[in-house]
Amino acid sequence: MLEFEAWWLLAIPLFFGLGWMAARHESGSAAGARRRDGGGLPDAYFRGLNFLLNEQSDKAVDAFLDVVRLDPETVELHFALGNLFRRRGETDRAIRVHQNLVERSDLDAAQREHALFELGQDYLKAGLLDRAEDAFVRLEATRYGAPALRHRLGIAQMVRDWPLAIELAGRLQRDAGEDRSREIAHFHCELAVRAVSGDAPGRFEAARGELELAARADPAHPRPRLLRGELAAAEGDHAAAVQAWREVERDAPEWLALVAPAWLAAFAALGRRDEGIGALERVYDARPSIDAFAALAQARVERDGAAPAVAWAEQALQAAPSLLGLERLLAMKAALPGDGGRTEIELAQRLIHTQAQRLSRYVCGHCGFKARQFYWQCPGCNLWDTYAPRRGEELDRS
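The structure assignment produced for this chain is given below.
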């Protein structure tokens, strides 16, 4: 993408130069006289091109500014300068350049729309979201309608205006033919989470309604079903929670690890603890997960006692070795009665703790952002579904 932008910026001055020469050629003898007097393309223009080719954008900007001062009517070069300013983070200068273009009376409609689109991007990069939104709204009926809608959708997500995000994503899906079903499902899920976190009357009913809309938008996505189970458990309806999570176990079992403790708690509340442990163990055997391992180890301690649980954990780690699992196993052994080997266990715990903490983070598959908790939307790149339901250590092994 960066290479594309660089060549695009280079093309603008090149086209500008060709336009300059064509204008001079068409102006006849007067142009010929000027060329004989050295009035062709300014040296600053060629210096600017040379600086761009050598990726010296600071010097290129200075050179092109000299050209603009010689001929203020050069629209293409103004666009090039504005984009160079924005790429360098000088958004205030980029805004001034593009504002000047928008306000010029000699621009045709296409050039003014282009300038307004660039201005909206300047505002967006500067964090002036209201102004960016206004600029993109003004572009709705233009050739920049679809990209302007995409930027507005990004802004709606940044400010967490989920109803607006649903509307904009729906328009992109309907008018631009883009598949936004997964994002729409997430937006409804976000509204469900917001409803439950509040204290308004009927919040559970509102959340269920949003989850139904989310499942309708993307029937294959596990998040609405995971949330439906969590919502049912919060209301004390453990049978409904198990039913929702059984669908996840059937269709996307690797995601069950995210609710492993709640899964076991729901089965225990129904008096079916052994069934819950057995089902989760089958999922773990097929798709080992540190979260499922930790939940199962704790459940076995509570059901069978510490020593049998340690024996199970040792056997599980033999089948699927894990440093995070080893840390959990050492903690279980340290809790056993008696002093045998306690000093060595505590030493081993201290030695592996730092490395285990690093490996315990979730990792964005797009930008590499690491987080202690799981996110459906990456805080680093703002993309959805870039986190796998596995820790960094597990991703390194796959």
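Interim note for the steering committee: The two ends are 29 Å apart (CA to CA). The longest helix spans residues 2-26.
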